[in-house]
Amino acid sequence: MGLDALGISGSPRKDGNTSILVKEVLKVLEENGFKTEFVSLAGKKIEMCDACYKCKETGICVKEDYLKEVYEKMINSKAIIIGSPTYFASVSAQIKALFDRSLGLRIANYKLKNKVGGALAVGASRNGGQEFVCREIHNWMLLHEMIVVADKKTAHFGAIGVAKYPEEIKNDEIGLETARNLGLKIAEVLKNLYPR
C-alpha cells in the first residue's frame, strides 16, 4: 500500500466547502508524516448502479467511469476520509453512487477491511442533518468492515461543518476544529496500526 490516506469529496461543487474540509483533515495527516491524496467527484462522469451484479464475478464494478480509478486508490490506501454535503439529511448523489457501486469490493473478500475510516459532512445550518450524513458514511464503512473513527472531543461523529455559500466554511472555526481533530484521531490510529 503506497498511500497512507485518501480524502474523497463528494460535493458536486469543484473546490467547494466539503473539499476544503476534507483537505483540512489531510493537512493534519501530512503534518504528522503521512502521505495523502485528495480526489473530488465534482464534474466527473459517474454512473449509477444498475444492479447487474457483474461485480460478483469480477470483484469490482465493471462500469468504465471515474469511480473505477477511485476504487483502486481506496484499495491501495490505509485510511479513507469521505466528505459529503448534506442533501435532505443524506449524502450527495455522487457519494451514494460510490457506495452503491462498491459492492464488488465487499464481495471480493472485503478489499476495504481494516482500513481506517473517517467521515465529514457540511450543511447549510448548525443542525442541518450533518450527523445523519456521517452516520450514513459510517454505516457504509462498517459494512466494509473498516475501522471507523470519530474526531476526538468536538463533534463525536466526525468533522461537521456549516456553510452554504462558496468558501464560507473558512469562517466556521468549530467545523475546522472538528476536521483537524478527525485528522489527529486518524493519525493516532494509523500510528498504532502501522508503527514506524
Structural write-up:
The mean pLDDT is 94. Helix 1 (17-31) packs across helix 7. The protein has one domain: Rossmann fold, CATH 3.40.50.360. The chain is α/β, with parallel strands linked by helices and 196 residues long. Strands 1, 2, 3, 4, 5 and 6 form a six-stranded parallel beta sheet that branches. The two termini are 15 Å apart. The chain has helices at 17-31, 55-58, 66-75, 93-100, 103-107, 130-143, 173-193, and strands at 3-9, 36-40, 77-85, 116-123, 147-148, 159-162.
CATH topology description: Rossmann fold
CATH architecture descriptor text: 3-Layer(aba) Sandwich
**End-to-end span in angstroms?**
15 Å
Q: In terms of structural class, how would the helical and strand content be classed?
A: alpha/beta
Number of DSSP strands?
6
Helical element count? 7
What portion of the residues fall into strands of 2 or more residues? Answer: 15-25%
**Largest sheet entry:** 6 strands, parallel
Descriptive tags:
196 residues; alpha/beta; Rossmann fold; 7 helices; 6 strands
Q: What is this entry, summarized?
A:
By secondary structure, the chain is α/β, with parallel strands linked by helices. It is built from 7 helices and 6 strands. It has helices at 17-31, 55-58, 66-75, 93-100, 103-107, 130-143, 173-193; strands spanning 3-9, 36-40, 77-85, 116-123, 147-148, 159-162.
SSE layout:
Elements lengths: L2 E7 L7 H15 L4 E5 L14 H4 L7 H10 L1 E9 L7 H8 L2 H5 L8 E8 L6 H14 L3 E2 L10 E4 L10 H21 L3
Parallel strand pairs: 1-2, 1-3, 3-4, 4-5, 4-6
Helix pairs in contact: 1-7
